TrEMBL record:
GO terms for cellular component: centrosome; ciliary basal body; early endosome; midbody; recycling endosome. The gene is Sdccag3_0. This is Endosome-associated-trafficking regulator 1. Keywords: Coiled coil. GO terms for biological process: positive regulation of cilium assembly; positive regulation of protein localization to cilium; regulation of cytokinesis. Belongs to the ENTR1 family. Residues 12-99 form a coiled coil. It comes from Eudromia elegans (Elegant crested-tinamou).
Amino acid sequence: LQEENASLRSKINKLQILSEAQADKMRKLERKLEENKIKEEKEAQDLEAMVQHVEQNLQLMTKRAVKAENSATKLKQENALLQAQLKNYKAENEALRSGQSASLAVMKRNADIALQNLLTVITSSQSSIKQLVSGAESLQLVADLLKSIDRISEVPDDGQ
């Protein structure tokens, strides 16, 4: 019985030592597990922060893309407006050139008509001038005749 007791005590001691070793091992594993949990939590927080940072960058890039699209749309509209204005200006320029040619033709026609009228006026005024000169010569002749009549009437009465 004593042997059995001693053997059992020996087994109990061995089991206690084994139990303590296992308990130490268990505590070490628990600490390691706790450290791993903390490490994983930190990694999860880091990943969450990174995801948030990426989301913020995506939002900024989206805003920039929307702004760029709006700007591009505005520029396209402005370009279309400027193209239309350019087309109108070209058409107006062409119309002015055509009008200028037509205007030059009208001016030339008017100048020809004015020249013909001027030549007619010159011809008729030459005739009128000739008539005026002839009338002036006739008036001079009449004036000379009247002077000579005055001289005749001023003859002295001695001879009567």
